[in-house]
Each structure stands twice: as C-alpha cells, then as structure tokens.
C-alpha cells in the first residue's frame, strides 16, 4: 500500500488474522450496501429531476405559445380599431351593419303631442252618407238620430276630432268634438265628450267627471262611427233623444270582485238641455207629449239626473262570450212642478268567433236592447174646439189636461256575420210603440209616438282598419203615414289614433 500506513501482520496469530478478515468482510459488505443504496437513490433522484426538467420545458413551451397568441390578439384590434375619440365623432365603417330603416307613418299611428307620462293622442274620424228616401220627412221623421242621414244626396254625418291620453300619474283624459252639417247647410259644432278619469283608486273603484255619454245600455255609449248600421235604432232616438243621453256630471264605477267581469255604475248629471231629451228640456217651444214644456234648471239635488247600470260578461265556451246589462235613469221633466221621468233598459250581446279565426274573421255577433219610458206629465190648459149646436159653428174652450203617466217602449235586435276578412253582413229589426194617452183623446193620435217598425239589411266592407264602405236599405212602416224605402251608402275614414271602445 502506498501513500498510507503499511499494515504489519507480523506478531499476529492466525485466529486474530481470521477475525480481522471477517470484520473487514463485514465492513466491505456494509460499505457496498451503502454504496448500492446511495447509487439507487442518486439514480431515482436523477430520474425525477429529469422528469421535472422535461415538464418544465413543456410548460415553458406552452407558455411561449400562449404569449404568442395573446400578442397576436392584441396586435389585431390595435391595428384595426380607430382611437377612442374617433369612435364617437367619426361615422361607422362601411363594413358595419346598416341602421334599421325608420318606420313610415301609418294613418292609424298616434299623432302624439307630448311624451313620457303626459301626452295626448290626436285622431280624426270623418263619416259621410249618400242616398235617398221616398219619405218627405227624412230628418226627424224616418231618421230620428242627430247623426243619421238627413237629406237626399250627401250628408256629413260627423267629422269627429278625438284627443285622449295621460294627464298625469293620477288621471287620463278624453275629448270628442264633432262637426256636422244639417239639412239647411248650417255647420253644427257639438261637444260630445270631455272628461277626466282616475287611474289608481283603491278597491277597484274609478271616477269619471266632465261631459260624458251616460252609461245606459250599449248603443248610447257608442259614437256614431262605431255603430254597425248607418243610423241609430228607433228606440234610442225616440226615448233617449236625437243626440242620445249625455250631460255634464260625474260617475263612479266599481269592478265587482267576481270570477267573471262584473261592473256597477252610478252617475249624477244635469237634467236639463237637448241632451236630456226626456227630462228637463223645453223642446224648442214645440209641444211634447201634448204639452209645451218650460225650461228646466237645477235648484236642488232632486233636480239632478240619476243613472245606474250593472253589466256582467261570461265566457260560455272558448269561442262564445255573453254580456248582459240592466240600466235605469231617473230625473225631473219640465211638464209640471213635480213631474218625473223614469227610463229602464236591458241589453244583451253575444259573440261567436271561429276557433280558426284569422284577424277576427269569421264571427257572428247578436245584440239586442229593450227600453221603456214612464213620463209623468203635469196638468196643462188646452184650447179645444167644441162643436156647435143646431148648425151653429164650433167655438174654442179651454180644457185642463189632467196629470197622467205616458208609457212608451221599444226594442231593436241586430245580427252581424263577418263571413270573410273585411266583409260583414248585417240585419236589424226595430219596433217602437206607446200606450194611448189622454191628451190623444183631445188632439188625436200623436204620430211622434205612434207604432212603427223597420227592417234594415246592410253590407259593410273594410278595405283596411282605416276606412269602410257600407250599403244599407231601410224598409219603414209607420202607422198613420205609411211605408217608405231608403237606400244609403256610407263611407268613412280614420286618421291618427282613436280611443278604444268597450266590448
């Protein structure tokens, strides 16, 4: 052995040498085992280290690829997008989608004044009629309504201006001003309605105040352009008057909490004037029901016109709806000091619509109304010609007409068949009559309340929702006058929005 101590075996016994050899062998085995373990450990560590290095290289490669993608994406918008300031001030590039074209104005679009929660929509409906009749008394004779055809040739039945909209968060408003031309060629201006109505009262309550059409029956609350026929029913013209029943006042309605539509109305209105025809109206100084009436006025609450109505609607099937109503009106008349008028009415409306209906067609609708008027007429002095005796000429004497209750009643029934889109065929029957009054025993039959009936078939074409053409024939039979025939062609157009009408 060189470079180290030299082992000297001299002086040692064989036993000692053998023991030293065994110890040396154990030491060699221990050192070898330790070396082998250390070698395996180093090999395992080297393998794990190599695996970690490999994973790090792959992660570094993925990170490089991800960074390249981010850089590529960042470069693209920077190269294509204009500066932020220019986005606001410069027009869109040619490749940007074009803005949607502005909708062209339609005749039925609202002509709106104002915006937001306060606005008014303006609309105009113009209705005309052309035709003729064999009757010599068209206005007020065969035709009782103030908006009915009034002469041979052309009639301006009405040009109605409507304004409706939101007044504020609490009220909405509506106004209808009608222009007409009478048979003498004079233009008449009529305020049909002008009212405000609450929008958010508790308890399903609603209040309307102003000038409004009285909630009595169905036809009375409808404007002429929404009628299904050229003229008003006879019973409406005779009992409610040429312009229907309407006046300044207020009404409250309650939507009854039932599973079906159910509403109760109660109104208080002035009782005087032409639009309270059967109440405190002087009839222009002309006799009415055998008397010349005075001019009415409101002095106390009992001088007011009180009206009530109840209406309910039911869905009979998925395609059939029924609406029924009952109405009453009470108020003073000016034939005496304490004389009153009561008018009662019932109405029924039924509609069927096909389950395959398109645009509301086909359909069948039936509507009927019956009214009765009890007019308490006061005492009235009459000048009556008494026959002479023994060939002497007659002589006038004054007779006091006693108080009496005069009863008149009537009804109409109409059916409409919408047989194809835009086409509706209709048929209406009217009948009015009255009980013979005491004053008629003095003066003879009052032709204004004599029995009469009328049959009216018609055909209506709606070219669009903005216009209509209607052809109607009337067969009139009046006791004491005879039979008359009338043919009317009605045409109408709408501009702007118009307030929706009740079902």
Blueprint (SSEs and pairs):
Elements: H1 14-80, H2 84-89, E1 111-115, E2 118-133, E3 153-166, E4 171-181, E5 187-198, E6 205-213, H3 234-240, E7 246-255, E8 261-269, E9 305-317, E10 320-332, E11 340-358, E12 361-377, E13 380-386, E14 395-401, E15 404-420, E16 423-434, H4 438-443, E17 452-464, E18 467-478, E19 482-496
Antiparallel strand pairs: 1-2, 2-3, 2-19, 3-4, 4-5, 5-6, 6-7, 7-8, 8-9, 9-10, 10-11, 11-12, 12-15, 13-14, 15-16, 16-17, 17-18, 18-19
Description:
Helices cover 17% and strands 46% of the residues. The protein is α+β, with helices and mostly antiparallel strands and 503 residues long. The protein has helices at residues 14-80, 84-89, 234-240, 438-443; strands at residues 111-115, 118-133, 153-166, 171-181, 187-198, 205-213, 246-255, 261-269, 305-317, 320-332, 340-358, 361-377, 380-386, 395-401, 404-420, 423-434, 452-464, 467-478, 482-496. A 16-stranded antiparallel barrel has the order 2-3-4-5-6-7-8-9-10-11-12-15-16-17-18-19. A two-stranded antiparallel sheet has the order 13-14. Residues 1-10 and 76-95 have low confidence and may be disordered. It starts with 13 loop residues before the first helix and ends in a 7-residue tail after the last strand. It has one domain: Porin. A hairpin with a 2-residue loop joins β11 and β12 (361-377).
